[in-house]
Fold this protein.
Amino acid sequence: MCEELLSIIEKNSRIGLNELAVLLGTNESEVLKELETLEKENIICGYHTLIDWEKTSIEKVTALIEVRVTPQRGQGFDKIAQRIYNYPEVKAVYLISGGFDLLVILEEKSLREIANFVSDKLSTLESVLSTGTHFILKKYKDFGTILDKKHEDEREIISP
Amino acid sequence: MTKELSKKITTIKPSGIRKFFDLVSEREDVISLGVGEPDFETPWHIRDEGIYALEKGRTFYTSNAGLKSLRVEISNYIKRTQNINYIPDKEIIVTVGGSEAIDIGIRALVNDGDEVIIPQPSYVSYEPCTIMANAKPVIINLSSENEFKLTPDELEKAITEKTKVLILPYPNNPTGAIMERDDLEKIAAIIKKHDIYVISDEIYSELTYKGKHTSIASIAGMKERTILINGFSKSYAMTGWRLGYACAPDEIIKQMMKIHQFSIMCAPSTSQYAAVEALKNGDEDVKMMRQSYNQRRRFLIDSFKKMNIPCFEPFGAFYVFPCIKEFGLSSEEFATKFLEEQNVAAIPGNAFGESGEGYLRISYAYSLDNLKKAMDRLNKFVADLRNNK
């Protein structure tokens, strides 16, 4: 049940217990038990909503920042990653293979704020060697969802 | 013109679905439960392969039997799913949908007056194709008590000296019924005893929700008398590509090939290139779609239970086949009234044969949201009917 349960709520976290039970062919208490276990094990880390902020009046700027760092003895990249991800404006931090080490996704209200974050907070960290900032101009698809696509059923209404 | 058109053809009734289609198409904002095709688009990697084939200028006829690489993949697929060996060069033909395979399969097997046993409710083309081949359809009316499976008794009773072919349409459209290995073994024993051919239409083989599908051709002594038909429409959501295939003994394929080469030439080449990709790398897509269909299936079964509408639990295809006899309306009356009052289109069961009378075919090739809306309306409709009694 676990894998199927996760794949349903990954797409729709608002779905009710009752409906989950029906879709999975089990009962509510089983689903609840499974959800609680998954939450306790931190496999389910949160329930989010996918929002296309571009369509609202709220200004948001997102940047992908490539960061090269010096790993620290005994702690590798974890310590420096932690120092970065503790900032609430940092939406994601990934350790990356290849030409740089950390990929930081930063969300701010304006370009200036991003510039400030990079120059004042990120670049000044001791182990940061260099940064490269890329601004996102348009989001086409996020978390597996195509943002501008309206689903239209083009099938014939009836077919054998 | 005064000269009469072909009597054989003019006396064939058009599909019962067509009539209902005309009724539905006059209306707006209909919620439909009436389609017989997946709601998923063809997975992108498969479409991409079709586009690539066009870009490369692969726009020519393929061999009559279909691309060699596709026949090899089909052979591998049947081997890994059913453990049956078909030789790509001799025992496989690629057709324009499973429907062409049904037509040429019947035509290759029958002589005038031969009897073709057709269990119903089932897909709408078996009976007319049989008539067009100058053979005689012998209908078995399946029953809900047997969960619309074909039983050995029913089969035995339908067999005469003239019986040539049994059509075996499982997983079934419109009932969603499946036949499992032990069901098939009993049927196979009778088939062998009477020395009959089988056309096994397994187009929904990937869509079963209770273990894996078994082909009757995998039972000992059956391969030599079976035309196994399958295709890409349902499993890979490729209905518009029009691509299917038949696997059968060399001698039968040779005869089917003649009809195919003189009437069709070859299946569309773009579709064939895309289908190679589907068979090579499409397993995950099928798994995803199957899981999704299964959730919707459970949702519908649960809804019917809550509405107190009897419906056996189907384990195949993407249809449920609830019984609406308690309302005292014929299938057509029920479906028409449902359409008029709630703007929901479901197909009257009798479109798939007389034994479908008293049932509705409800397709779950729709999003859950769509199904929820439709079930809300059905609930209202059924409550009204019950209150007015």
About this structure: Chain A has a mean pLDDT of 93. Strands of chain A lie at 61-69, 90-95, 102-108, 128-135, 141-142, 145-146. The CA atoms of residues 140 and 147 of chain A lie 6 Å apart.
